[in-house]
Amino acid sequence: MAFDGRFYPRYGHEIGRRCEGAIAALERAEGSLLFASGMAALTAVFLGLLRAGDRVAVAHAVYGGTALLADELLPRVGIEVLRFDPFDPDALAGVLAGRPRLVHVESPVNPTLRVLDLAALARAIHAAGALLSVDATFVPPPFQRPLALGVDVVVHSATKALGGHSDVLAGVVSGRDAELRAVERHRRLGGAVLGQDAAWLLHRSLATLEMRFERQSRSATTICRVLAAIRDELGIERLWHPSLPEHPDRALVDATLAAPGGVLSVEPRGGLARAAAVYDRLRRFHRSPSLAGTESLVCLPIDTSHAGWSEARLEAAGFGAGLLRLSAGLEDPEALADDLVQALSATI
Ligand code: PLP
């Protein structure tokens, strides 16, 4: 899709269009639109596709910023938000009975790495006359392609794997021209287009996307294997990564993800106090709420992406306050695993 960016850079610009074309090719989308952040991209999807009086259904298990956007901003402009558990077919049927215009989910889910049956969701949602948007930030194209499964709109925080060097804040929306036209209209009016310098950095990053993501996926898989082998000794309550044989959505992982990604989550026994002690003892993971950079990162979602969430809300999202989210970078995976083993052993 070509929005003529020669007129004025807020309407699109040369390097932005080149980068959008490259991402659209990766997604096999009719087009892509770049935004100043992942949140700007999500805002444009909601406000571009919805009007006052519309309803939107948003999954319980989404990035905390998306949940806040749905709770605070959308009702203020007359958009009613319905929340639901996308893993529960009855909950989906219930929410579709409320006739939403749009359903928004995340897959893999932050930070539990659960994977949704996007093809089945798309079928049910289309039968109810609604559109499906998915935040696919945790596994970028070409490693998953939600549009091929029937999803209408795909959103990424390009700050993460697509940017990949922790030096650019960006978001991207991909899909068909029909929906993108409305989303671009919002971008043009709201002004949250990605600037030229950031678009240049993002475009540079695409050349190494596959290498980085494959390496990070292998490293996280190695780390998980080491931890899983001695999980009782290390006092691990739950371990989350799409590579694990016991992953709750094993068949969907195999069918829809070409790589599991570099993010894994660990819930040590002992709740938040122990998780905080592990966090304090890690030496090779930088403390940061981001992910998929070249350097390994760790965060406590309860203090960052999901700050302020109640116990009940965390339970609905499927994890506890004592979950540590780790993102494997490009360092030696054995050294990263050793670091986790020492931090878990010292705190048991
Ligand atoms: N979606 C997901 C899944 C995220 O993890 C994040 C940020 O952490 C966002 C959206 C928001 O992206 P940004 O920080 O680029 O605005």
Quick recap of the structure?
The chain is of the alpha/beta class and 348 residues long. Helix content is 43%, strand content 16%.
| Global shape | globular
Query: Radius of gyration, rounded?
Result: 20 Å
* Low-pLDDT windows of residues: none
Order of helix and strand elements from N to C terminus? HEHEHEHEHEEEHHHHEHEHEEHEH
| End-to-end distance | 55 Å
Largest sheet: 7 strands, mixed
**What percentage of amino acids are in beta strands?**
15-25%
| Helix share, percent | 40-55%
Strand order of the largest sheet: 1-7-6-5-4-2-3
Bound molecules: pyridoxal-5'-phosphate
Mean pLDDT: 96
Fold and architecture overview:
Helix 3 (64-76) links the parallel strand 2 (55-59) and strand 3. The radius of gyration is 20 Å and the shape is globular. Helix 2 packs parallel to helix 3 (64-76) and helix 11 (271-281) packs across helix 13 (333-347). Strands 1-7-6-5-4-2-3 form a 7-stranded mixed sheet, sandwiched between helices. The protein has a 5-stranded mixed sheet with strand order 8-9-12-11-10. It has helices at residues 14-27, 38-49, 64-76, 89-97, 118-127, 177-190, 196-206, 209-229, 231-234, 250-256, 271-281, 311-317, 333-347, and strands at 31-35, 55-59, 80-84, 102-106, 131-135, 153-157, 171-175, 236-240, 263-268, 286-287, 297-299, 324-327. The termini are far apart. With 348 residues, it is α/β, with parallel strands linked by helices. The site of pyridoxal-5'-phosphate has 14 residues, from helix 2.
